[in-house]
Design brief:
By secondary structure, this protein is an alpha+beta fold. Helices cover 57% and strands 7% of the residues. It has nine helices and four strands; from the N terminus they run E-H-E-H-E-E-H-H-H-H-H-H-H. The structure holds glutathione (GSH).
Amino acid sequence: MASGRLLEVYLDLLSQPCRAVYLLLHACKIPHTVRTVALRKGDHRTPEFTKLNPMQKVPVIVDNGFVLTESDAILKYLANKYDVPDHWYPRQPERRAKVDEYTAWHHSYTRPHAARVFIQEVLIPRQTGSQVDEQRVSRSLSQLEETLDQLETMFLGRQPFLCGHDITLADLLAICELMQPLGGGRDVLQDRPQLQRWRSRVQSALGESFDRAHAVLYSIRERYKAKL
Ligand SMILES: N[C@@H](CCC(=O)N[C@@H](CS)C(=O)NCC(=O)O)C(=O)O
C-alpha cells in the first residue's frame, strides 16, 4: 500500500452503497478518514459537497486528491488500488467478469427494488407524516420477489456466495440493499432459506463490522417497532 496517502470517505451509514464501501474498507483494513455527510440534515446539498459531487449523492471518496463517486466504481477502485485479498475482485478474467455481471445487474434490480420498499415504508411516512401506502408497498414487494427469485437462480445457485465460493464486492452491494427494508421491520428474506444462509455467510465473513455498519438501520427498526 502506498504510504502517506490520505483517503477520505464521505458517507452516511443509512445509505446502502455507503455501507458497502465501509464494509470493504474495514474488511481489508484500508486506512481512511470518514467524513460524515448527514443526508437527513441536507449535508449533501451544501456548496462544498456539491463541488465534490455535483450529483449531491454519497458515497464519495477523495484519495490523495483523486475524487471518485459511485459505489460500484469506488469499490473496484479500492480493490485495484489497495492490495486487497484477491477474492474480493478476482484478477482472473472470468471470475472478475462474474462480479462485473452481478454489479451491472444490481443497479437495475436489487438496488431499486429493495430500496423502494424502504422508501415507501420508512422514508416517505417520516418525511411527510403520511400513512404507508399499502398498495404501493405491495406492488414493490412483488417486484422485489421477482428480483429475489433471480438472485437465487441466476447468481447464488448452489454456490455459497453470489459469484462463487468466496465473498466478493457483489455480496457487499447486495447485502446492504437487502438489509435496508429491516428499517421498517421487514425482513425481505424471511421466507427464503437459501438467501438467509447466504446472508449468514456474508455476515460471518465480515465479522463485527457488519453490525457496526448497520447500527443506524437497527436503531431505526427499534424506533419503528416502538411505534407499533
Ligand atoms: N449509484 C449511486 C447511488 C448513490 C445514492 O443514490 N446515494 C443516496 C443515498 S443511498 C444519496 O446520496 N441520496 C441523496 C439524494 O439523492 O438526495 C451509488 O451506487 O453510489
